[in-house]
Amino acid sequence: MNSLFDKVNQHRKQHLPFVLYRKPNSKTVIGLFQENDHLYFSKDFHEKGFVFAPFRNGDVIVFPLELSSVKFAAPHLASASDEDFAGIQPDSHDKEHFMALVQKGIDAIDQGLFSKVVLSRSEAIALPEFDLEAVFERMLQQYSTAFCYCWFHPKVGMWMGATPEKLLYAKENKFNTMALAGTQPFQGNDVVFWQNKEREEQEFVTHFISENLKDITSEMTFSSPYTTRAGNLLHLKTDIEGVLNTHSNLKKVIDILHPTPAVCGLPKLVAQSFILENEGYDREYYTGFLGELNHDFNTNEMASDFYVNLRCMKLEKDKAHLYMGCGITKNSHPEAEWEETVNKSKTMKRIL
Ligand SMILES: C=C(O[C@@H]1C=C(C(=O)O)C=C[C@H]1O)C(=O)O
């Protein structure tokens, strides 16, 4: 990692953009270093490079391959600890505020406005000392099955995260994605019981993907939902794969999938306006997506590999802003949803 971090430190000093990332279950860290400080935006996902997209429909930033240098590292990491972690306690004000927001979401569902909405909050924590290399290494070590990244642009800021959720992998006309939703803490048990509320919440996502990709695919297969672990949390997941038909292209698939009901809600547009009007803060890149665009940096093949930006934080000089949310349905309880966000906040707190 030393020479990779030499390059990172050089880039940070010169205020130049870079991204470091490691794919789920991979041992290789890839670094992409843009050699000027322009902000480039993707035009219809035709470029090759690395994209970083916000939650709201808007400008998708790309680090273009032809303007960047690439470096690899294969760090030796100690094995992760499974210790329970209490973390810094959030403010009681935050709790009241978030529970009132969840209640408002439940009321809107009862009134028939939508059937699911994903509501979130952000929490700032002081970081008097921050060692990027140490934090990044702890993230790799703790979350071997996540997509781990650190992204920086001098005109946007620094973001870091360890997300369990793939948005889309596409190569030629083949693609795969997932429906991930439903959360409970991992308690070391082999047998896991899921309530109907979580099953329903996850089914919404699978159903949405199946219905909405129908017109641009010629084949699609779905696994049964199964339990998957992300750090100290468990989720329900369905794997989805298929073949895109000739009416399709990357932009069309992304426009359908992003933002999925796993991070926004159903129907998408009403849920999204409810979020924008009521959450009371700007999600920016949280619940956006990021990843390789039209280029697999390991194999140099043409493929795209995007992840949803979850379990992430925005880093400022002496502060980190953590982001976490949860799916609200008619059977949600504000207190339980609050606890879920507290558990999700530990993903980043644990490595700081
Ligand atoms: C919104 C987040 O996670 C999403 C919401 C989940 C849920 O509601 O159970 C589970 C996984 C993610 O799709 C987050 O981590 O902030």
UniProtKB/TrEMBL annotation:
EC class (word): isomerase
Domain called Chorismate-utilising enzyme C-terminal: residue spans: 94-344
Top-level division of the source organism's lineage: Bacteria
Keyword Isomerase included in the entry's annotation: yes
EC numbers for this chain: 5.4.4.2
Molecular function in Gene Ontology: isochorismate synthase activity
Catalytic activity: chorismate = isochorismate
Gene3D superfamilies in the cross-refs: Anthranilate synthase
UniProt-listed InterPro entries: ADC_synthase, Chorismate_C, IsoChor_synthase
Keywords: Isomerase
Family assignment from sequence similarity: Belongs to the isochorismate synthase family.
Protein name as annotated: isochorismate synthase
